[in-house]
Amino acid sequence: MLPSSCDTFVALPPSTGGQRVIFGKNSDRPCDEVQEVVCFPAGDYAAGEKVECTYIEIEQVPHTYAVVLSRPAWLWGAEMGANEHQVCIGNEAVWGRESADGDEALLGMDLVRLGLERADTAEKAVDVITELLGKYGQGGSCMEDESGFTYHNSFLISDRTEAWLLETSGKHWAAERVEDGYRNISNQYGITTKIDKEHPEMREYARSKGWWDGETQFNFATVYSFLTTARIEAAGNRYCEGKKLLEKSNGHITAETMMDILRDKDSGINMEGMFMTTGSMVSVIPTDHSLPGVHYFTATPDPERSIFKPFIFVKNLKPLTQTTSPTYGPDDPVKKKPRFQSKPDRKHELFVKHELVAAIIESYKDRGTKITQSMRQLEKTNMTRMEGPLLYGVDEPDLLVNLFTNCVQEEMDVYKTS
Q1: Which family does the record assign (predicted)?
Q2: What is the 3-state secondary structure (H, E, C) of 159-217?
Q3: What residues contact residue 134 under an 8 Å CB cut-off, 6+ apart?
């Protein structure tokens, strides 16, 4: 299978409007895959406890942070998400000189969730992910079938003050700090000569393989990428177009800017076809630690035909039932070996209703236009409401425990009246 995957973006002051960090990601996955949005509370665990990830079990930590995740419904990890400390992470598939066809280990998506559960800053998330990578490795099928679609991962990680780009090849890795401006990544290595952290054996390994002569200036992307980049040409085009779209709004990048970028089909960022954008996320993180972040998720495919709905971390959050897919426990074909012998129905309530409306939008132009206008108006109304918490904080957190769920219900009400 040719590599087709995602685009992730981050903008920091002074490229943003106001003292805010804006994070965005499209999750581009197989067109028949359901993506759910779920949240999990913080937790405390006894010594020796384990956590079962997608394919392997690993040691649990004493405390995990509350997280909200957008993830393919069949696996444990996530394509993207945020935690209660306003750390945001998205991952990208990357292919390079090192083979990705190893044994089942941690998926890149598992590492996204583990980084969010265990790190209260972006830099700590880099340390968490790289430590787990060294201990357990990465590997296993990244699709819910027997195709053996495998890849290594890059990660864009942000918090209230900075962002980090982390790129991996097997157990080797390099990381670059982004302290201002904007950055986007696609399915290609992007770290060149500015390396702020690295695997201690990364350079020597490359030299031993004959990829680097040990004398010229070390360039991670040049050394660890394929000799030919033809296989990831589409990713390079999307990367360039995404960078142009960010530059166009440089100095006043907002959540609306990021949503427009994620909806852009001409650039290929909003992907269509056998691989398509199955879920989208935009986060608004004030640099002021007293103010909450607002995390917007679609929980449905194609952001052009979806509504970004807000989520805020408060105490006593309720489960996001309308965007949570059915579970099958030990009978799930993902858990049985050989894996993926069948594919159960994983459609959640919002997905089912959105699927019908998307078909109407596609088939009936006038009616579809009216539905889309109603959806955009609801999105705009909700974003206007979120300016209060973003500017002044949260006075009554109990009023926000069902924020995302209520917005999902409003979306489904729009579908009913349409």
Answers
A1: Belongs to the peptidase C69 family. Secernin subfamily.
A2: CCCCEEEEEEECCEEEEEEECCEEEEECCCCCCCCCCCEECCCHHHHHHHCCCCCCCCC
A3: 171, 199
Contact predicate 301/276, CB 8 Å: yes
3-state helix, strand, coil in the chain (%, to 5): 35, 25, 45
Q: Phi and psi of 57, rounded to 5°?
A: -105, 135
pTM over 0.90: yes
What backbone phi and psi angles, to 5 degrees, belong to 275? Answer: -105, 130
Q: Give CA angle at 56 (25, 200), nearest 5°.
A: 70
Which domains are assigned to the chain?
7-414 (3.60.60.10)
Helix (H, G, I), strand (E, B) or coil at 414: helix
Using an 8 Å Cβ cutoff, are 64 and 117 in contact?
Answer: yes
Catalytic residues: 6
- List the pLDDT tens digit at each of the 418 positions of the chain: 454 669 999 999 999 988 999 999 999 999 999 999 999 999 999 999 999 999 999 999 999 999 999 999 999 999 999 999 999 999 999 999 998 888 999 999 999 999 999 999 999 999 999 999 999 999 999 999 877 789 999 999 999 999 999 999 999 999 999 999 999 999 999 999 999 999 999 999 999 999 999 999 999 999 999 754 444 556 788 999 999 999 999 999 999 999 999 999 999 999 999 999 999 999 999 999 999 999 999 999 999 999 999 999 999 999 999 999 999 999 999 999 999 999 999 999 999 999 999 999 999 999 999 999 999 999 999 999 999 999 999 999 999 999 999 999 999 999 998 7
Cβ neighbours of residue 107 under 8 Å, at least 6 residues apart? 53, 54, 55, 75, 77, 138, 139, 140, 142
How many angstroms separate the CA atoms of 179 and 296, rounded?
Answer: 23
Output DSSP code: residue 34: -
Residue type, position 256, single letter: E
Reported as half-sphere exposure (CB side, CA atoms, 13 A), residue 169 has a value of 24
